[in-house]
Every structure is written in C-alpha cells, then in structure tokens.
Design brief:
The chain is built from eight helices and eight strands, in the order αβββαβββααββαααα. By secondary structure, it is an alpha+beta fold. A five-stranded antiparallel beta sheet has the order 1-2-3-5-4, with helices on one face. A three-stranded antiparallel beta sheet has the order 6-7-8. GO terms for molecular function: ATP binding; protein kinase activity.
Amino acid sequence: MNFLKKMMGTGASALPFTIGKECHSYQGQLFKMHEGTKKSDGEEVSVFTFEKESAAPSAVQTALHAFQNSSKYRHPFILRYLEGQDMDNQTVFCTEKVRPLLDWAEGLEESTRDDEITWGLYCLFNALKFLHEDCKVSHSNIGAHSIFVTNGGDWKIGGMALLGDSTDQVHINHLIQAVNFVPTSMLAPEIAGKDWPALRGAPRHAPDVWGAGAALEAVYARCRGTT
C-alpha cells in the first residue's frame, strides 16, 4: 500500500496544479487564496485551499459545501471551477485566474472607473439572476470577499459556502453553523444577525441584493482610499 501511494502521489504533489504565493489581501476567512499554474500546460490559475487539521467539524463541512457548489454551478459570471480534490487533510481547488474585487478597485483609473464598475455590476446581477430564477437558490454570501475580477474586467461570483434554498429548513440548519466561518460585515441583517425566521420569509434575491450594495459601497470606498 505504501508503494502504491508513492507511485500515485499524495497531498499537494498529486494535484494537477501547483500552489504558489498566497494572496494575503483575500478576505474569504474559510479558504486561503493562492497563485498557481496548471501542470499540464502552465496556464495561470487561482487556487483556494482549506486546511482541515485542527478545524472544527462544522468548518470542514462548510468548506466541503463551498467546494461542491463551486464545481456544480456553471455560468459565464460565476467563478469558473477547473479542478480540485477533497483530501484527508485539505480541500483544494483551482479556478480561472482572478483577483479579489477590492484589489482590482485600487487600480481603477478615475476616467474609466464608473464604466468598469457598471460592467461589473452587469456581470454580478446576471449571475444572481441565474441563481435566483433558474436554480431557485440564494447565494447568501455576496460581498466584496466573494466577488473576483478577471484580467478582462469581468466580475465573477465565488464564495459558495452559504448557497442554497433559504426556504428549506435543512439548508437553514446548514446556515446556522456555516455563517460562523464567513465574513459577515457585508451580509444582509437577517444572515449576519442570525434571524432565520426572517430569512425564510424573505424573497430569495433579498440578501444577495443587500450584499451587492455593500460590495459596491466598498469598491467606491477603496477607490477613494477610505474604509
């Protein structure tokens, strides 16, 4: 068995992509974000890692939920999952190359800023429309920490740890634990305040629209160099 493991590789050495420098500005809380490259062709990617060692069981389950949703939902403006693995000690996956929303905002030129942000909002609300109307789910974790930007300026939704049907009690039970492992400063009051009856009674788009507004405010604050 040990010989077989050596032949197949274990852990990071067995992954089809490399895990490079960490992006310390990423504020996702549950996962860490890294630079990376695909081993097959050298394509640059973004890599998200979650370390299971010493993590609470509910954190491990939340990370697995995010990982599974990242590969399940496909849309031009949802962060494009490429490949990944859920291993004994780590959950890791790679996506198209992106950078965190607020890092992107820092580099905007004032002359084109509003046009670029307007396009980003178009991307964001198209992805949310897909989730709300076609998939019948709420993202529930929309904020600057869960929006990423490609080199071409497209905004992409990631951070799928809270995604699900907020009218379903099974999903509410997941949220009760999972909300402890995501940044809550930009989340809707029903989620940040753990008011689950109010969330179940709200339209599925409501918490995501709140989060989008908070993300937009954060983008303009970063452009102005304020918090």
